[in-house]
Amino acid sequence: MLKKCMGDTSLIIPIEDIGIKDSLSYEEIPVQILDRQVRKLRTKEVASFKVLWKNHFVEEDTWEAEEDVKKRYPHLFEPRETPDQGTNSLLSTS
C-alpha cells in the first residue's frame, strides 16, 4: 500500500549548483596509499601501490604502477606533520 509523502522544498538543490560535466564524469582523486608490493618477473621487477580513491570503499581500491602514481600524484609522497611532533602546552607535564 502506498502512502502520501509530503516533500520538504527546502531540501531541493538547484541543478546549477551541482558541478557535473556534460559527459556526466568526474575526476578520481587518490586519498591514501594502503600497501606496496614488488612483483618479480623473469627479467625485471615491477613495483606497485594499492591506492584508496575518494568516493570509494576500501574494498574498491586498485593496484597502480609505482611510476605512474609518483608522476601523477606527487602530493601523496610529501611528508606530513603528525600531531605529536613539536610542543603541545596541554600535554606537557612541566
TrEMBL record:
Spans annotated as Disordered: 74-94
Domain of life: Eukaryota
Biased amino acid composition, Basic and acidic residues: 74-83
Compositional bias (Polar residues): 84-94
Residue ranges annotated for the Chromo domain, each copy included: 31-77
Protein name: Chromo domain-containing protein
Organism in which the protein naturally occurs: Solanum verrucosum
